[in-house]
Amino acid sequence: MRSRVAAGITMLALAGSGQAFSAVSVTEAEQLRQALTPVGAERGANTSGSIPEWTGGLSEPPAGWRRGQTEVNPFPDDEPLFVITANNMHLYEDKLSEGSLKMLEQYGPDFFMPVYQTRRTAAFPEHVYDKYYENALSAEVLDNGNGVRDTIMTSPFPIPENGLEVIWNHILRYRGEEVSFRSASATPQVDGSYNPVVNQYDYYFAYSKKGAELEDIDNKIFYLKTDTISPSTLAGTITLVHETLDQVRSPRLAWRYDAGSRRLRRSPNLAYETDLPNSSSLRSVDQKDMYNGAPDQYHWKLKGKREVFVPYNAYKLHDKSVRPDDVIRAGHINQELARYELHRVWVVEATRRTGIKHIYDRRVFYVDEDSWQILMSEEYDEDGNLWRVSEAHNISYYQVPVFWTTMEMTYDLKARRYYIDGLDQNYPAYNFNPGFRGKEFTASSARRAARR
User: Fold this and answer.
1) What are the pLDDT digits (tens) for 81-138?
2) What one-character-per-residue DSSP string does 178-222 give?
3) Largest Cα–Cα distance in the chain?
4) Residue 138's closest CA among 6, 2, 24?
5) CB atoms < 10 A from the CB of 340, how many?
6) Under DSSP, is residue 431 helix (H, G, I), strand (E, B) or coil?
7) CA–CA distance, 430 with 176 (Å, rounded to integer)
8) Which long-range contacts (CB under 8 A, 24 or more apart) does 334-338 make?
9) What is the enclosing helix (H) or strand (E) of 7?
10) How many other β-carbons are positioned within 10 Å of the β-carbon of residue 291?
């Protein structure tokens, strides 16, 4: 693989030039068929065997599951190997993130981490694996990191040189071609009381459509339409987003229909540090999906790879019988339903650029080597204090297959409250083949839908 020292020199040299970072050689790309998985993870087990060899992931659904059903737990007999608490966390400190240590310290003994056998379940379709290889040979970062070229369908840099490439891998990771689902979010009070907000989500991933070419997608990663179902005070609110590949050259397009005013308006500020709608100011817009949008507000540093206890295979939280009352507790979720495993993660540190206004001065991301999904993050205030801790609890969705979140939460350590998204009230299973067409995600289409 390429030298990380050389990569750092290249990063500095090109930071002000707008030139492209070069792709890998054929010899390096061949590692994706040898020592590395098609995604770019280390194929082999770790020294102790506590992280097993990757053998293809959960590419086939468990027996008994049928298309249209909610994903069932493929490991129903798994029991925790041990439980990390505030009293014994010193024994596992080298495998814990700063955020996990702080949560254990602040919320113990109610906050604990049940650690299970590591299962490398992340899997994707074969044609996506092929694109990883092709992207490795051609993909380049452009415009001081604010765009990419010669890449399509999935993460551009399976053999990354720097933190910027890793964060682009998360932003552009494969999440299917389209998906439709319903879920609820909430911002519990300090005592645990809450009022859920239910949304219908419809995604059309133009960048990931099979057969799509970069010049055909009009600089779009995906189209998203959300329709608020409840409470009644918000019902009928529609948000439409056109997520762009280079958001500095062509910023994200967003519209919002307010049922009260009965008007569809542009939302030019739906980005960066703006409060995420219905989050009670506990989460910024760019924390949705753990991180989204243009990376131009931060310097990105690749800290290396670590073995860390992270949320993984969250089938208990995803179970169709689990309701919001089963999940929500004062201060944090019901940790009995959480599952943590030891995985190798890329650690990326984002430091705010001089002159940039953002509520987070520094951020640290823990990115899964098997999927490029951000599993955890830490957000620091301008005084250098750890302010918020975010977790993404993921599963493999069998219909595609694809590895993606089922539930996300951001814990505010100062307010002792949190934002949670992905709550289920026996809604239908995620549908990864709803049959969308791009024209259903235009402003005029959203306006017509709002009037119905």
Assistant:
1) 999 999 999 999 999 999 999 999 999 999 999 999 999 999 999 999 999 999 999 9
2) EEEEEEEEE---TTS----EEEEEEEE-GGGSTT--GGGTTTEEE
3) 61
4) 24
5) 28
6) strand
7) 11
8) 335/110, 335/111, 335/112, 335/113, 335/114, 336/114, 338/113, 338/114, 338/311, 338/314, 338/393
9) helix 4-14
10) 20
